[in-house]
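Summary of Year 1 activities. Much of the first year was spent building the evaluation harness for sequence design. The harness presents a backbone, in tokenized form, and records the residue chosen at every position. We chose the following record to illustrate the format because it has been used consistently in internal testing since the harness was completed.
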């Protein structure tokens, strides 16, 4: 069986059995033809993680390269458009090019297909979050690792404040 429990996988798994190695905090890496993915376990339900990664008001909190976001949709939808102001000072337009509710979204930034954001549920209180990118963008995986750590801290702080899954954010 091809699992992420060794920290590296050639194929995208649909379900991840819980194993001791999966539950560790180390990043997981995957290679698919033309794409590279980096992911981490999130000790929060898929719905809460989804809300963090689709809430444009939170992108500057977890996205190391994002200073500000302008978008008419607080929670992204398929086709949402806006702009991100980067840490180097310029703004880039973006479009959400693919969205599978509570599972995956992709975007084009500055007209270039950029990262994908994918959640693989483990159970109601745990999931894996992966960012994927074109093979040529592997150096960007370092930025993605920082983002994954920030998302993990953000979701943990929200849940630590006593909020339950589904009530962490407004609908």
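For this record, the design step produced the sequence shown next.
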């Amino acid at each position: 069986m091809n699992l992420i429990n060794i920290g590296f996988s050639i194929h995208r798994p649909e379900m991840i059995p819980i194993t001791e190695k999966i539950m560790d905090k180390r990043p997981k890496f995957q290679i698919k033809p033309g794409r590279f993915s980096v992911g981490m376990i999130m000790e929060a339900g898929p719905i809460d993680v989804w809300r963090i990664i689709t809430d444009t008001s939170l992108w500057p909190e977890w996205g190391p390269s994002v200073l500000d976001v302008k978008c008419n949709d607080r929670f992204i939808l398929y086709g949402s458009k806006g702009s991100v102001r980067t840490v180097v000072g310029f703004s880039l337009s973006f479009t959400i090019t693919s969205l599978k509710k509570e599972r995956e979204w992709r975007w084009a930034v500055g007209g270039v297909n950029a990262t994908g954001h994918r959640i693989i549920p483990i159970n109601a209180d745990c999931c894996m979050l992966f960012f994927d990118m074109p093979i040529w963008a592997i150096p960007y995986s370092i930025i993605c690792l920082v983002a994954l750590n920030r998302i993990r801290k953000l979701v943990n702080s929200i849940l630590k404040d006593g909020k339950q899954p589904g009530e962490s954010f407004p609908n």
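The first strand starts at residue 8 and ends at 9. Quantitative recovery figures across the full test set are reported in Table 2.
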